[in-house]
Every structure is written in C-alpha cells, then in structure tokens.
C-alpha cells in the first residue's frame, strides 16, 4: 500500500465517520479531532481530488500528507490498514503511486500598490481566485431587480475590477467602501502575509468612510493637496480632469 492509498482512506474516514450518542445520531469528530483544523480539512479534500485525477503529488504536498499520516498513525494501525511495522517502513521510506514533482515556492502575500489598489500573490487556488473575482460585486436588496451601476467599467489607467497581471503573477484588487470588510476577511481567512503598509492603508480606508475631504494650499510648492475621503467622483475629477497626482 502506498502513501496515496493511505491518504485516500483517511479522506474517506473523514467524510463518513459518524456514530450514536445516547440514542441520538451525531456527527463524531474523526481521528479524535487530530484533523479538525480547517487547513487539514481543506487540504484533505483538495489533494484527495488531485489524487483521484491520477496526478502526482508535489514535494510540498507530500510533506503535508506524511504529516497527516503521522498524526493519525494510531488509527491507521487500529483500523488494520497497515501494521505498525509496515507503517513505520512507509514513513521512513515513502512509496508513491507516481513520482513527485518539485514544488515551486510562491509566497502567499498581499501588498499595498498605491491609490486604492492591493496586490495579491499566491499559488493557484480556485477557491481564492473565485473570491477575488467576486470581491467587487455589489449585493443588491431583495426588492431591487435592476443592475446597480456601482462599479464603472475599466477605463485607461483606472482599475475598477480585479484582474490578473500576467507579467508579475499578481491579482490587482481595487478597494471600495463596500468591499473593505470582504478584503479584510479574505486576508485573514486565507492567511495572507501582509506588512505594516497594508494594515495602515486598510485602517485609513475604513476610517475615511463618510468623512469629509479636505484641501490644503501648499504655497511654497504652489500646489493644492487634497485628502479625498470616500468620494470616488472627486478622486476621479482630481486625477482625470485636473491632472492631479495620486500619492
């Protein structure tokens, strides 16, 4: 029995484990909660599907698979999938259904790019990609049937919807008042690495909601400095009509 075979048995057990308590049907935590962490649950389902398609594991995936097997080795032996000796041998010298391929490291991070734009970098993940694609969608009230033109179509250098920059392999995401919380949730729930600049900008963006914009005359440099808060029309007029510079 190879590593993938054992892993698929773990997936099956995770999906079907149930029991009864005081005559009531209850969903029991498989493996005594060893794999209850959402990361492990998502990994087991995702990589299990990957194996079903007869695709090879990456070197990084294999490390996590072996970690999972080690965490539940007591259950593996108890269920007689392998003897303790066979399991020890498999963990010491893993045997795979297909040769592993070398993982490429793609940092999972978000950075502030200036203006109202954030850049998200991560290894391909369809779940995260779908969340990003929809992060500028606006939810409508149940009684409203027409389309709400909240987000205008992209025009020249103005980014109004998320897009993937193929040159840098980064998702470019604009921040608006209606998606600030969704972006904060995305960063936290998907465990994106971030720096102080991202925290500073997101805090500033959230605190600017419903605040008035201000203008200061810099006589020394003969310019007007505008702090635009929560006013996309004014920001657009300053940069596109008055040819102002966004800092």
Give the proportion of residues in helices.
25-40%
The overall average pLDDT, rounded, is: 84
| Distance between the first and last residues' Cα | 60 Å
Order of helices and strands: HEEHHHHEEHEEHHEEH
Per DSSP, the total helix count is 9
Q: Please give the largest β-sheet.
A: 4 strands, antiparallel
Beta-strand segment tally: 8
Low-confidence stretches: 18-24, 143-155
Beta percentage is 5-15%
- How are strands sequenced across the largest beta sheet? 3-4-6-5
Rounded to an integer in angstroms, the radius of gyration calculated over CA atoms is 25 Å
Shape annotation: elongated
Structural class: alpha+beta
Overall number of domains: 3
Question: Explain this structure to me?
Answer:
It is a single chain. With 247 residues, the protein is α+β, with helices and mostly antiparallel strands. The protein folds into three domains: 90 residues, no CATH class; 99 residues, no CATH class; 38 residues, no CATH class. It is built from nine helices and eight strands. The protein starts with a helix and ends in a 6-residue tail after the last helix. About 8% of the residues have low confidence.
């Amino acid at each position: 029995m190879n590593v993938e075979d054992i892993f698929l048995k773990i997936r099956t057990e995770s999906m079907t484990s149930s029991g009864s308590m005081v005559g009531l049907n209850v969903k029991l935590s498989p493996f005594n909660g060893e794999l209850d962490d959402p990361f492990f649950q998502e990994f087991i389902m995702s990589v299990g599907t990957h194996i079903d398609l007869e695709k090879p594991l990456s070197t990084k995936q294999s490390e996590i698979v072996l970690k999972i097997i080690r965490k539940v080795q007591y259950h593996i032996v108890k269920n007689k999938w392998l003897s303790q000796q066979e399991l020890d041998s498999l963990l010491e010298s893993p045997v795979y259904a297909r040769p592993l391929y070398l993982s490429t490291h793609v940092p999972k991070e978000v950075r502030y790019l200036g203006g109202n734009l954030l850049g998200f970098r991560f290894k391909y993940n369809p779940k995260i990609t779908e969340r990003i694609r929809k992060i500028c969608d606006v939810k409508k009230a149940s009684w409203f049937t027409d389309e709400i033109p909240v987000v205008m179509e992209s025009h020249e250098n103005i980014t109004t919807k998320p897009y993937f920059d193929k040159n840098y392999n980064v998702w470019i995401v604009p921040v608006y008042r209606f998606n600030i919380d969704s972006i904060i949730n995305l960063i936290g729930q998907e465990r994106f690495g971030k720096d102080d600049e991202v925290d500073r900008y997101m805090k500033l963006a959230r605190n600017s909601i419903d605040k008035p914009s201000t203008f200061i005359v810099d006589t020394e440099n003969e310019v007007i400095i505008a702090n635009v808060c929560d006013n996309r029309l004014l920001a657009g007029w300053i940069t596109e009509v008055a040819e102002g510079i966004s800092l």
